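Weekly structure sync, notes
Attendees: PL (lead), two postdocs, one rotation student
Agenda item 3: pending single-chain targets
PL asked that the sequence for the first pending target be pasted directly into the notes so everyone works from the same version. It is reproduced below exactly as submitted, 260 residues in total.
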Amino acid sequence: MQVITISSAPADLPLVRRLEAVGFRAWPAASVVYDGSWQVRLTGGHPSKRLNCIVPLDPSDYRDLDTRLAKATKRFEDYGRRLVLRETPLAPPPMIRHLEESGWEAFESVDVLTAGLASLELPDTLDYLPSHDIGRFADACLQVGEEDAALKPALAEVLSAIKPPSGYFMKQDPNNGAVATVLCVQDNDLAGILSLAVAEKHRREGLGTEMMSSALRWARISGAKTAWLQVEKSNEAALSLYHRLGFRKAYSYRYWRQGD
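Predicted structure, written out during the meeting:
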């Protein structure tokens, strides 16, 4: 079994709290309830882990772990979901030890990156203007990601629930339809970059750089000071692109699930 680890270096907890808060608003779950400081996020129609997980938000909140985890498991089962926990630097260390001792497994690790927009030197690429057509953007995301078109209503519902100003960026090919997408959500002085995707047969053509540059220029013009994004540690191509653009790691998180 692969061992998934995250950095033991101390994180800037106020920054983590702020980025977690804007992340919740940028990709909102349909149902959010709290058990103490644990946020329980569920979205029946969409399988995204970020929309279907529990997120502990206070390092000191680890009372009654078995009882609370059993309660969360039942709530996830009611939605037809397997319980998933997202461990950020805000998660209580005794809770993580308890998961390890109880046979849980970490199965995916993600880096959260940030970049100051004022000093960012963006490549001189073709600019794409943001759309505000949710249905068209949902279609483009599903086509580029080669995902089931039946997910469109659920994806459109998530996009419609985003309250901060958002720009939907798409590149269309006359013969192949959508070939690249990115979503930029501006929450006061922070701009989140989400849903960056390039169709498989159009990769290594510079489209990722073009889409990122367009979204970041729009964010900067709109008044954002800092951009943030999340990327799986295993996605080396995306990490290389983001590092070239000036993004640096703020912290990491990982997902846990009960062992089989």
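Discussion points:
- Residues 13-110+254-258 form one domain.
- The longest helix spans residues 207-221.
Action: rotation student to compare against the earlier draft before next sync.
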